[in-house]
Amino acid sequence: MPVSVTIDEIKAAQARIARHVVRTPLRHAPSLSHNNSPVHLKLETRQTTGSFKLRGATNAVLSLETAPTRGATGVVTASTGNHGRAVAHAAKARGIRAVVCMSHLVPENKVEAVRSLGAEVRIVGHSQDDAQEEVDRLVAEENLAEIPPFDHPAVIAGQGTIGLEIIEDMPEVELVLVPLSGGGLAGGIAAAVKALRPRTKVVGISMARGAAMHASLLAGKPVQVEELPTLADSLGGGIGLANHYSFALCRDFLDEVVLLTEEEVATGIRHAFTAEGEIVEGAAGVGVAALLAGKVKPSGPTAVVVSGRNIDLGLHRRIVEQGVAA
Ligand SMILES: *Cc1c(COP(=O)(O)O)cnc(C)c1O
């Protein structure tokens, strides 16, 4: 069956982005390890902009010369979170224009965070759909290339470089745990890992509140789920009913998907800090949380992808001190 993102594309991405992103550490985590199952954390918390999203955004920006985006004068996205930051940073590094479209509902601190990275901000309408309409208009009228957050081959190949690094640093790895939302991260990593080590298991982890990829995999096609507030806010949102790449990769390459309660996500954030000294956002703590909850049981060397650190520090302190966020 044809695969939409190949190991060769992921290797090409690795060479393309090498000078622009941090090759993050894979650090032993004593508090999560057992005799035959050493657990290592792949720390994308140390990535520039605070999340792995810079890998895919950088690969997409550096790939702009190739069709069908040839000649684009800049890039545009509607993401206000980690992907928006990453696109802004990657465009600035390349010296091209970046526009981030957002609705009036986006809080001022997020607007400022994107502006401070050198991107133009367009504030339009009152929903994510309105922001996306402005993206579509800019693509059509101002010759900008859209860089979507997950469903794009260059973005997926960029995220897949994490899988290459895990195999390089830990060739004996038997289990890889990956946070799962739109599936660019998990799809890319699984494509790399399965190409190089077909018997290594790759498990996707989402919060139970609004797990769109999980529902879609069960349905056998992309479906919509209600979006609910969650501590793992970077995992919110749908996968797109017209999904082209990430759904198929997750369907073909993920061995399993595990869902977590909000309390389990909070426990992951707290444990990462108190036992391993890492500040992680909710989305990034889900691998640790799944191990602590016993929802994944390693039987060999294990790598846990810790995807980002962009959490409000007041919220982080409340979780560490009180357990579940009040
Ligand atoms: C975007 C993001 C994810 C999920 O990545 P997908 O490619 O959408 O599955 C996980 N963790 C963090 C910190 C993110 O920013």
UniProtKB/TrEMBL annotation:
CDD domains in the record: Thr-dehyd
GO molecular function: L-serine ammonia-lyase activity; pyridoxal phosphate binding; threonine deaminase activity
Protein name, per record: Hydroxyectoine utilization dehydratase EutB
GO terms under biological process: isoleucine biosynthetic process; L-serine catabolic process; L-threonine catabolic process
Family, as annotated: Belongs to the serine/threonine dehydratase family.
Cofactor: pyridoxal 5'-phosphate
Domain of life, source organism: Bacteria
Record keyword Lyase present: yes
Pfam families assigned: PALP (PF00291)
Occurrences of domain Tryptophan synthase beta chain-like PALP (ranges): 18-308
Transmembrane segments: none
InterPro entries: Ectoine_EutB, Ser/Thr_Dehydratase, Ser/Thr_deHydtase_PyrdxlP-BS, TrpB-like_PALP, TrpB-like_PALP_sf
Annotated keywords: Lyase, Pyridoxal phosphate
